[in-house]
Design goal:
Distance between the termini: 56 Å
Order of helices and strands: HHH
Organism: Nocardioides oceani
Shape: elongated
Radius of gyration: 21 Å
Mean pLDDT: 90
Number of helices: 3
Protein name: PE domain-containing protein
Amino acid sequence: MDDNDQLEASRHATAAREHVYSFNRATMWVRDQNPAQTSDELAEFADLAAALPQAFSQLSSTLEQALADQVLSMDSMTDESDPAMAIGVARLHLEEARGLAVDLHKQLNAARNATAHIISQGVDEEQESMPWDQP
């Protein structure tokens, strides 16, 4: 991976984070979204979670390759003095995150399957409104 590829990979990671933040803001006060729309969004997040294990494996491999090919040292902002130890710890965390991402995919897919066949007849206007809907 050259510097341009690394920069592009960093941009993709940043964009993914920004998109999730944007989703959170866009859905913060949604009241009238029907379950089919939520099911579609769950499917998208399940697909995102399904891709995370490979991303974490690739990050782990990138660290392993850096250890093999580069002259590494630690900055003064940590007590750790051995880059190999730091990379080993990071790789263990990435392996754990990989397993958690597999579980996350399963849970999101189950939530999507649970909501996939709900039919909405629209918002019940007689239902009591939420406190933030009050004048």
